Model the fold of this input.
Amino acid sequence: MPELPEVEVVRAGLHPVVAGAVVTAVEVLDHRSLKRHRGPSDDFVDRLVGGTIDSAVRRGKFLWFPFEPAEAHEQPLALVAHLGMSGQVLLRGRDAEPDRLMRIRLDVDSPSLGPVRLAFVDQRIFGSMALDETVPTLDGRAAGFAGPRLLGSEVEAEADAVAGSAGETGTNPDPAAWVRRVPQQVSHIARDPLDPAFDEPRVITRLLARRTGVKRALLDQGLLSGVGNIYADESLWAARVHPEQPTESLSRARARVLLAEVRVVLLKALGEGGTSFDAQYVNVNGQSGYFSHSLAAYGQQGRPCPRCGTPIVREAFMNRSSHFCPRCQRVRTR
Ligand SMILES: [Zn+2]
Done:
């Protein structure tokens, strides 16, 4: 399943191609892939064709393309790509052999590459695309990552620069209004720990107020986003926290360490192009990442813990599994 690092790899690959790209043709090959679009598929196609994509934006594992339709619309729209279990947005030549599992085809004229194709490919059809309304972010900050690179405060600075320069042109009151707007379908998703606008003290306060196990809280997209099962297991191992440690028994200091480890794990995965253990998941060019070579706990049951040598154990967890070291990661009492 694509998670934050995989989606960021895809987003960063698409961004320079789609920024300013005009949609020239859209074909919906499987209507199930529009299940989250409110309205008929004709509406999806009609509003997209002739419009311009502003950029590629990501929050957690959610990807969207702020979009200006050919006909003036009162609010900025967004083309949301829900990747689900197996969805991908692949960049293809306009004349390329169609991908076998392509569900939606978007032909665009890209300022940087000319005519190219965005192929929404989805084997299991849990994913979908939708044209969605946008709403202002609650904190007034950039809705997600929209720049060419992920790291640092560059993204927020870039968003500010875009919004600032937009105000100076005078031709359009706010052509970059999309920067601080989030698609309705993504608005319930909390910011991820790599987001410059991630409010760590507030997230920790909310985390410690939960009455649940810490891993369950880490996976709660309403608290923080972007941490899937693999990254939860890896960061819990790194922070030496048991997955079932009660949240209310964590100290603030421990919670800070855990969030720091979450960031390290996500950045490491990003640096390596995402996890490749899921062979289904590939980046824009169809290559899979290499992160699986450096997993310490996830999928490592029976192998020695890289820290203490005790065999990693696997336990059932919410229809999935938790992997941890029974020696390094004991449930602690304060
Ligand atoms: Zn250990």
In short: The two ends are 36 Å apart (CA to CA). The first helix runs from residue 4 to 18. The pocket of zinc ion is lined by residues 305, 307-308, 310, 325, 327-328 (CB under 6 Å). The longest strand covers residues 102-110.
